TrEMBL record:
<dbReference type="InterPro" id="IPR055170">
    <property type="entry name" value="GFO_IDH_MocA-like_dom"/>
</dbReference>
<comment type="similarity">
    <text>Belongs to the Gfo/Idh/MocA family.</text>
</comment>
<dbReference type="InterPro" id="IPR050984">
    <property type="entry name" value="Gfo/Idh/MocA_domain"/>
</dbReference>
<protein>
    <recommendedName>
        <fullName>D-xylose 1-dehydrogenase (NADP(+), D-xylono-1,5-lactone-forming)</fullName>
        <ecNumber>1.1.1.179</ecNumber>
    </recommendedName>
</protein>
<dbReference type="Pfam" id="PF22725">
    <property type="entry name" value="GFO_IDH_MocA_C3"/>
</dbReference>
<dbReference type="GO" id="GO:0000166">
    <property type="term" value="F:nucleotide binding"/>
</dbReference>
<feature type="domain" description="GFO/IDH/MocA-like oxidoreductase">
    <location>
        <begin position="149"/>
        <end position="271"/>
    </location>
</feature>
<dbReference type="InterPro" id="IPR000683">
    <property type="entry name" value="Gfo/Idh/MocA-like_OxRdtase_N"/>
</dbReference>
<dbReference type="GO" id="GO:0047837">
    <property type="term" value="F:D-xylose 1-dehydrogenase (NADP+) activity"/>
</dbReference>
<dbReference type="Pfam" id="PF01408">
    <property type="entry name" value="GFO_IDH_MocA"/>
</dbReference>
<dbReference type="InterPro" id="IPR036291">
    <property type="entry name" value="NAD(P)-bd_dom_sf"/>
</dbReference>
<keyword id="KW-0560">Oxidoreductase</keyword>
<feature type="domain" description="Gfo/Idh/MocA-like oxidoreductase N-terminal">
    <location>
        <begin position="7"/>
        <end position="131"/>
    </location>
</feature>
Length: 366
């Protein structure tokens, strides 16, 4: 039996998402297409790096660095994973790219579309791989859902999607250095969680995504608490089909809409569920309701439920795909190509302009 190919990861930052990502990567899987190796970890504090390595990847013996640059310059690293707050993504990626490294960077890719374009141009010039870690798009559930929607047309003609991400964050009780509170780190719901609601709408309303996405009209409103955007509401309108998206995100409630995403079509509807909108675990296809809504007699018939078991939290799908891309010498992900990252960032830019959410030091040209 031939040996599996392996991919050596350099992890930048030791915060929550890096922990989640690494925990999933080191899970032993017989059917994994590649072997993931945590080659090195960098954080601003060596003690935290040591704790991280002991706790999340004890069997990997990674090198530990107290500077991110050391990861970029480590010749044994095949791909750098960036798990810093939004405001640092652009510079972290530019530094990694300039050292010739391939990159998987957390969402939101950058603060705005102009920054995303700058990073992508740098990657193009240096001929390296760069990929926004929108892990949701890599899930088998999403591929199955889109096949049912756009190929099998199980609910007929799609006309609208509702999608919500609610995550209660008591911003006033957080330290000023929290990424949920500090504007200079990119605090705000849209870049953090609204991006998932928006992604659900794009995935379910636009059959052309990600390669030939249609530009929707996006009407947005946002509200703020102590200068931080805490509520985003977006109405999306796709001119070619008239399809409608109603998209929300908030840090003022822990109660996601249940289901967090519903897609409606002429013959039925689909409800998507899971612990959070970033972690969908099932969806159910229902036939169209029958009866008279005015008399309260609308009847819900039994639906067909599709369950998706996941390994760990479900980061392996994007990690495997990234590894396979890098090993094959590809420069872009076919699941989240550069054009789609820019597409999403442009919609969010437009919503933030309407909602009066600006990030000093980033958005002066917005
Ligand atoms: N895909 C997903 O499900 C999730 C994605 N995310 C994304 O991951 C990124 C990070 O989020 P998360 O892990 O929750 O954030 P954390 O605050 O938990 O971690 C961020 C890490 O960035 C590093 N960092 C560097 N400079 C600073 C600074 N000035 N202030 C704070 N941290 C700094 C720190 O690591 P060190 O000290 O080691 O250098 C810190 O631990 C964001 O882009 C977020 O959107 C977050 C959660 C889930
Ligand atoms: O990406 C994310 O998904 C889960 C949330 O808890 C987190 O705030 C967000 O960054």
């Amino acid at each position: 039996m031939s040996e599996k190919p392996s991919i050596r990861w350099g992890i930048v930052a030791t915060g929550m998402i890096s922990q989640w990502f690494v925990e999933d990567l080191v899970v032993e899987r017989d059917d994994a297409p590649v072997k993931h190796i945590i080659q090195c970890i960098a954080g601003r504090d060596m003690g935290r790096c040591e704790d991280f390595a002991k706790k999340y990847c004890p069997s990997h013996s990674p090198k530990l660095y107290d500077s991110y640059e050391a990861v970029y310059n480590d010749t044994d690293v095949d791909v750098v994973y960036i798990g810093t707050p939004h405001a640092f993504h652009k510079q972290n990626m530019l530094d990694a790219i300039s050292a010739g490294k391939n990159v998987l960077c957390e969402k939101a890719f950058t603060i705005n579309a102009a920054e995303a374009k700058e990073v992508i141009e740098a990657a193009r010039a240096k001929n390296v791989y760069v990929h926004e870690a929108m892990w949701l798009r890599h899930r088998p559930l999403v591929h199955k859902l889109r096949k049912l929607l756009f190929e099998d047309k199980v609910i007929g003609t799609i006309y609208r999607t509702f999608a919500d991400f609610a995550l209660e964050v008591d911003i006033s009780s957080l330290p000023p250095t929290s990424r949920y509170k500090d504007l200079s780190l990119g605090a705000g719901t849209l870049l953090d969680t609204g991006i998932y609601s928006l992604t659900w709408a794009i995935l379910t309303l636009d059959a052309g995504s990600p390669t030939s996405s249609e530009k929707p009209l996006a009407l947005g409103v946002q509200s703020h608490q102590d200068g931080i955007e805490v509520n985003t509401s977006i109405l999306l309108h796709y001119p070619s089909t008239g399809r409608q998206g109603v998209i929300t995100s908030t840090t003022q409630s822990n109660h996601n809409a249940r289901p967090f995403c519903t897609i409606y079509g002429t013959n039925g509807f689909i409800e998507v569920e899971g612990p959070t909108p970033s972690m969908p675990l099932s969806f159910t296809v229902y036939p169209k309701l029958e009866g008279d809504p005015n008399s309260g007699s609308l009847e819900r018939k039994e639906g067909q439920k599709y369950d998706f078991a996941q390994i760990g939290r479900g980061f392996i799908y994007e990690a495997d795909n990234t590894a396979l891309d890098v090993l094959a010498g590809r420069k872009e992900s076919s699941i989240m190509p550069w054009s789609e990252t820019i597409h999403v960032m442009e919609i969010m830019d437009s919503v933030r302009k309407q909602g009066d959410t600006f990030y000093p030091g980033h958005d002066e040209a917005l």
